[in-house]
Design a protein that fits this description.
single chain, 327 residues, oxidoreductase, Lactate/malate_DH_N, alpha/beta, three-stranded antiparallel β-sheet, 19% strand, Lactate/malate_DH_C, Lactate_DH/Glyco_Ohase_4_C, binds (2S)-2-hydroxybutanedioic acid, EC 1.1.1.37, binds nicotinamide-adenine-dinucleotide
């Protein structure tokens, strides 16, 4: 017997990231090949025609498990009874624009969408915010959805995590899939802190395999931090397929579990590591049974403390920047 369909809302459906993401979800990359999915697609009124075109292409793929597609410009229709929501729809950064400029441009969107989620989504909905600034947008969404568990409203740090894995793998001459226990702390921004102190490859410490602390500090960290800007510079557009891939990885692992492996997720702080409660902060986490647990009790050295405090300060400033909006 076929399983009942799950409902997945995706916002920004006419945009670049969704042009990759929607096809991956419809193909079963999120919930599995045996799980029917209903896509509930949100975009602005002026983008409805373009979403219609994307849906024609989804139909033309004849995905066996795509049970239905809803197209709407009303968040309450898009989020009705959803099991999962991937909030992509927001203005992206263009050449020369700083991420902070996006804060004011995009904050209001997440207030409205948080309120809609609060009203109509399933009470255990899993939400991933991709639209930038992702951590603070997730914070706004959670504050605007007081009846939903704040821990279920997460932000995407997985692109930074995957970027760091690839750079480390290249440097150390190993496979990225063999790197375990990498942690990306803080904000999805150039201040993020990719921490390799606990990482191993087949039991060997990654820092030893890399063998070049100066490269780690002076090349790896800025390369990962500024990768989004480098892609905008090169492509004239922000990352899209890799962002969609990271969104699939984040949600897939949350839904299906990580078998004890660490992944990096932006989650509402419970106060651990001294991050004020509610701030959406990148942390190492382990997923199991449709839930996640933050890896706790990791020690900080002087370098880590400086990096950690820098990215936390940026998030506290962003929070202060939206406090008027949240009332
Ligand atoms: P895009 O401009 O191609 O598409 C954005 C889409 O969102 C458009 O179709 C637009 O009409 C829609 N939109 C705007 N306001 C909306 C609203 N209120 N409700 C619903 N839809 C709305 O942009 P993109 O390249 O797909 O990027 C989307 C966002 O993702 C940007 O903010 C970008 O910076 C961010 N991003 C985040 C990461 C990450 O790792 N967290 C990575 C890449 C991009
Ligand atoms: C990225 O990291 O590629 C995105 O967040 C886009 C950006 O503005 O950096």
């Amino acid at each position: 017997m076929t399983k009942p369909a799950v409902r997945v809302a995706v916002t920004g459906a006419a945009g670049q990231i969704c042009y990759s993401l929607l096809f991956r979800i419809a193909n079963g990359d999120l919930y599995g090949k045996d799980q029917p999915v209903i896509l509930q697609l949100l975009d602005l009124p002026q983008a409805q025609g373009a979403v219609g075109g994307v849906v024609m292409e989804l139909e033309d793929c004849a995905f066996p498990n795509l049970a239905d597609v809803v197209i709407t410009s009303d968040p309450k229709v898009a989020f009705k009874d959803i099991d999962a929501g991937i909030l992509v729809g927001a203005r992206p950064r263009s050449k020369g624009m700083e991420r902070a400029d996006l804060l004011s441009a995009n904050a209001e969107i997440f207030k409205v969408q948080g309120a809609a989620l609060n009203e109509v989504a399933k009470r255990d909905v899993k939400v991933l915010v991709v639209g930038n600034p992702a951590n603070t947008n997730a914070y706004i969404t959670a504050k605007s959805a007081p009846d939903l568990p704040a821990r279920n409203i997460t932000a995407m740090l997985r692109l930074d995590h995957n970027r760091a894995l690839s750079q480390f793998a290249k440097k150390a001459g190993v496979l990225s899939q063999d790197i375990e226990k990498l942690a990306v702390w803080g904000n999805h921004s150039p201040t993020m802190y990719a921490d390799y102190r606990f990482a191993t490859v087949k039991g060997k410490p990654l820092p030893e395999l890399v063998g070049d602390e100066a490269w780690y500090r002076d090349t790896l960290i800025p390369t990962v931090g500024k990768r989004g800007a480098a892609i905008i510079e090169a492509r004239g557009l922000s990352s899209a397929a890799s962002a969609a891939n990271a969104a699939i990885d984040h949600m897939h692992d949350w839904i299906h579990g990580t078998n004890g492996a660490w992944v990096s997720m932006g989650v509402a702080s419970d106060g651990s590591y001294g991050v004020p409660e509610g701030i959406v902060f990148g942390v190492p986490a382990v997923c199991a049974n449709g839930d996640y647990e933050v890896v706790k009790g990791l020690p900080m050295d002087d370098f880590s403390k400086t990096k950690f405090d820098g990215t936390l300060k940026e998030l506290l400033d962003e929070r202060d920047g939206v406090s008027a909006l949240l009332g």
